[in-house]
Specification:
The protein is of the alpha/beta class. The chain has 8 helices and 8 strands, in the order E-H-E-H-E-H-E-H-E-H-E-H-H-H-E-E. An 8-stranded mixed beta sheet has the order 3-2-1-4-5-6-7-8, with helices on both faces. Helix 1 crosses helix 8. The structure holds 1,4-dihydronicotinamide adenine dinucleotide and ligand LO7OFUQM. It holds the Pfam family adh_short.
């Protein structure tokens, strides 16, 4: 998919990986709708991007992915502002093992809400032009992150949900590809979770083990992660792909062939 003239929507787009995804899409000619609950940071980012790319290339929409109403409205506004929708990145996520229900509602339910709305707006059967969904999971979607069982569960679920949806989309001929990105640790604000006992919940005692894991795996720059995100957006041959990104490089996960 060539990105010039295409329109993308990124949840959790105010900062961190969402910001890096928005920037790489803009660099390649797309327009981007940024959705986030962090309004001051989102507005500041929009102002900075206006300077660099012009004010008609982005919009910022205050939106909580736990609200079906707000998310629906944000998709509607994006279509209204830019006239089309081609790329949806369900990226918003948190680490909170104490209020684990909220973690599930953002990291998993938010991805499901965003993916279903994306299909509704992009599938050919609804007069959409087709497109691509990239859901942001984590290395914790592929193996256990011992100090964060609920975070791990949400990310495994995002991988399974996205793979099943990709097959469903292909068999239904929606013209929408669905891929998953699984980054290792990246230098963003979410890493502060490890310094916050209230968020670590009952496994805050495992701080040292977590710290060792982080030192062992290293910390990626968001721009490195964004390069691989771009691959999932632009490579039309990829549907149901799960791409893991580590300091050692990126590789597609291989799974046994589906029975159907
Ligand atoms: N940084 C890392 O080490 C890794 C992060 N990830 C995933 O990447 C995604 C992005 O996280 P980061 O950029 O690292 O963290 P971050 O904390 O910098 O960014 C997350 C963004 O999501 C927004 N957000 C949180 N709850 C929201 C809600 N209910 N509705 C809308 N927006 C909401 C925040 O305001 C923030 O702007 C998350 O899904 C995270 O799980 C995956 C692997 C590694
Ligand atoms: C409440 C704690 C969750 C905090 C979330 C903060 C950072 C998130 C980072 C990640 O998403 C995880 C990245 C990599 C490590 C995860 C698992 C390692 C195990 C992988 C394996 O064994 O294959």
């Amino acid at each position: 998919m060539a990105l010039s003239g295409k329109v993308a929507l990124v949840t959790g787009g105010s900062q961190g990986l969402g910001k890096a995804f928005a920037e790489i899409l803009l660099k390649h000619g797309a327009k981007v709708s940024l959705l986030d609950i962090n309004v001051p940071t989102g507005n500041k980012l929009k102002a900075a991007l206006d300077e660099e790319y012009g004010s008609d290339r982005t919009c910022f929409i205050s939106c909580d992915v736990t609200s079906e109403t707000q998310l629906k409205e944000a998709f509607h506004k994006t279509l209204e502002s830019f006239g089309r929708l081609d790329i949806v990145c369900n990226n918003a996520g948190i680490g909170n093992e104490s209020n684990w229900e909220r973690t599930v509602d953002i990291n998993l339910n938010g991805v499901i809400r965003g993916s279903y709305l994306a299909l509704q707006y992009m599938k050919k059967q609804n007069k959409g032009q087709g497109g691509v969904i990239v859901n942001i999971a984590s290395m914790a979607g592929l193996g256990p992150f011992l100090s964060a069982p609920v975070y791990t569960a949400t990310k495994h679920a995002v991988v399974g949900f996205s793979r099943a949806l990709a097959d469903a989309s292909q068999v239904s001929d929606y013209g929408v590809r669905i891929n998953v990105l699984c980054p290792s640790f990246a230098k963003t604000e979410i890493l502060e979770t490890f310094n916050t006992d209230d968020l670590m919940g009952q496994f805050s005692n495992l701080r040292q083990t977590t710290q060792k894991l982080l030192e062992h795996m290293g910390v990626l720059d968001p721009s490195q992660v964004a390069e691989h995100f771009l691959q999932l957006v632009t490579d039309d041959s990829r549907n149901g792909a799960v791409l893991r990104v580590t300091q050692a490089g990126a590789s597609y996960m291989e799974y046994p062939k589906s029975v159907m």
